[in-house]
Specification:
Layout lengths: L2 E3 H16 L4 E4 L2 E4 L3 H22 L9 E3 L2
Antiparallel strand pairs: 1-4, 2-3
Helix pairs in contact: 1-2
Length: 74
């Protein structure tokens, strides 16, 4: 099981947004086609993770009620 911080998740979402904006919405690998999430979905995720990452940073700096907030991957 991989444990990621919200800050790490936010970076991945922003990377996916950058890849779509660069023209990589979908691609073929062999005979399978892969498609990334839509920009609207990624923008929603970015907003949510940005808020959680901010809380995470505040907690790490001793300004929050919790010592750590983590996203646990499935």
């Amino acid at each position: 099981m991989t444990t990621e911080t919200y800050t790490e998740r936010l970076a991945k979402v922003r990377e996916a947004i950058d890849q779509i904006l660069a023209g990589s919405q979908s691609w073929m690998l062999g005979n399978k086609q892969y498609t990334r999430a839509t920009l609207s979905t990624l923008y929603d995720m970015e907003q949510r993770y940005a808020k959680l990452a901010e809380r995470e940073q505040a907690a790490a700096n001793g300004r929050g009620g919790r010592s750590r907030v983590r996203y646990i991957g499935i």
